[in-house]
Amino acid sequence: MKAVITATAKYLPESVLSNHDLEQILDTSDEWIRTRTGIRERRILKDPEKATSFMCSEVALQLIEKRGISADEIDLIIVATMTPDMMFPSTACLVQKNIGASNAWAFDLSGACSGFIYALNTGAQFVAAGTHKKVLVIGGEKMSAVMDYTDRTTCVLFGDGAAGVLIEPGTDENYGLLDSRLYSDGRGGANLCMPGGGSLNPTTHETVDQKLHYLQQDGRQVFKSAVVAMADVATELMTRNNLTAEDVDYLIPHQANQRIIQATAERMGIDLEQVSINIDRYGNTSAATIPICIAELHEEGKLQSGNNLILVSFGAGYTWGGIYIKW
Ligand code: ACO
User: Which label site among 164, 261, 310, 313 has the fewest CB atoms less than 10 Å from its CB?
Assistant: First the structure.
């Protein structure tokens, strides 16, 4: 039994942080950010009393409403996030409480920017096994909570947001999540991490003074690895499924940098017209970027039955992977 996506939804906070706003607080420029990353603005969840679970719950409620079902029909909730509300309980359990999904079990999945790809593949296994009929898979991040807004090399890149899908068993084996390839390489871990707040560097005055509670990265190393890994896994999926570049209706890549997206598409021989890009409006929302793209394509009526979609991501870990969906 193949898992099919039966509803999509997204939640973006209203508050916009533009490149011009960042010019006021940092030694940076709209021109630098746009030409190096493709980003013009990003959304920020400003209310200090709201966090990732709030955005993910908004997504979950929309998914249930759009599908016309009740919350107690949900079997499982998976939330992919690297910015959970807190270390525990999981953000997925908070979502379960918020939406009243009394029959669902729920867990978080830590795959950084590849979190949604990992989570969608994981949820699809439960559907394919025949044990779960309605699974919510959500990627959500409050990246602004782990940004050092004095560090121009990281804070200009990221934004807040959440999005997700409802997956259910399909009736036709030729449609739905047809194939996936997932990878990890822990040797890249130090190039993109948040060292504080865990059991290695528990939060203390010292770790905060050392700024260990902020995201840190070697941007150049991540850039190089991302381009190669994303193009390779996408090409592998195309080869395994006998797809040419023309057969791919939409390439839906993780939105980390417009130049990474363009280089990936070029290496695959895919025209930019076939590539879903919204990094200009939202920046990098980590695990939320791919489901936001899917939700937007769906809302705009661009996804037609039989379309071939290639989802591809790269993130901290390193983690990367791709999924082939026949819509
Ligand atoms: N404004 C102005 N200047 C800047 C800024 C900024 N915001 N940031 C860096 N610079 C400066 C640097 O200090 C450097 O100056 P120097 O030459 O005097 O030292 C110069 O610009 C060039 O810096 P580079 O790092 O070489 O710039 P690059 O072209 O590589 O772009 C960037 C940097 C945008 C971070 C790029 O490397 C990148 O996108 N990497 C991938 C990062 C990423 O996507 N991480 C997350 C992916 S995975 C996940 O989402 C978890």
Answer: 261
